[in-house]
Amino acid sequence: EKFPEHWLNLMEQHQITLWNTAPPVMSMFLEYALHTPGVIERFRKLKLRCVMLSGDFISLTIPKHLHAMLPNCEVISMGGATEASIWSCWHRISRERHYQGSIPYGRALANQSLHVLSREDLRPVPILVEGEIMIGGVGLAAGYHNDVVKTDKAFVWSEHLRQQVYRTGDLGRIHPNGEVEILGRADFQLKINGYRIEIGDVEAALRAAEGVDEACVVPVGNGARKRLIGFLKCKDEVSAATIASSALASCKKRLPAYSQPSKIHLLDTGIDGLDAAEGEAARLETGREGSWPLSANGKVDRKMLKQFHADHEDGGADGAGLGGGGGFG
């Protein structure tokens, strides 16, 4: 079930000590705990000793709230791929460390290896230079069953490493301390009017805006009509007008004009909408206030986000965006 009340009842009943889900599921649970009368006291009494999060972007607010309410609970970021035994790297999220923008992908687990290589010749790239994250080690699969073409494309031999590695399709870079930072998906790169755009960069610019908790960006349209649509999950008690101004300023500061979202939608968080003079912010009803729509595996359902935009594009599309005249751009 996707209902936090049910999860809380089960965790109390069975004295659960270990949590393991995609980050949006924990985000939904925290929203329920923080905004439902009487629940936060129950949450603080949970026996959780370890929260493991993997498979999607981890908002900085998730470990912040967990550390505040459950001071004895470890929060760990896990990463990897099914083709390399599910998990290949990890990072213990520190209470004291001030994270800039995102949680590190981390370091390789025992008997596995994590590399950032050039996509062309599979050569290790210098520190802080973007490349593709690739995985090696004893956890590597032999390939895809009865699919030689797909296997040969994903499982490749690196002459520079002298070993076989799996191409994750994730872009990243290595920091001087040896930690790998994930920058986004290679297949999240796209071209709009001839310009290459990294969706992860656009999402990072939106997250940096005042009043924004989490952000998700999806491409819509084809050819010359292709554009980016942003979705924001907002912090408490922040007006839509403030979010509009902040998000616009953040995008203009960090992004070239061609990569800025053409329209922004807000999750349904109960925040007051813009007044008539400024336009009206469309709200995405997800079934749980302030939560992302989730796919079956607990990740953000980007197809549903695209459908929501399509449903609000006709008959008042200009009013659906934040800011006057139909959003940013």
TrEMBL record:
InterPro entries, per database record: AMP-bd_C_sf (IPR045851), AMP-dep_synth/lig_dom (IPR000873), ANL_N_sf (IPR042099)
Pfam short name (any one): AMP-binding
Residue ranges constituting the AMP-dependent synthetase/ligase domain according to the UniProt record: 4-145
GO biological process, one term: secondary metabolite biosynthetic process
Record keywords: Ligase
Gene3D superfamilies per the UniProt record, alphabetical: 3.30.300.30, N-terminal domain of ligase-like (3.40.50.12780)
Keyword Calcium: no
Cellular component aspect of the GO annotation: cytoplasm
Keyword match Oxidoreductase: no
Taxonomy, superkingdom: Eukaryota
TM segment ranges: none
Gene Ontology MF term list: ligase activity; phosphopantetheine binding
Protein name: AMP-dependent synthetase/ligase domain-containing protein
Organism: Florenciella parvula
Highest classification ranks of the organism: Eukaryota, Sar, Stramenopiles, Ochrophyta, Dictyochophyceae
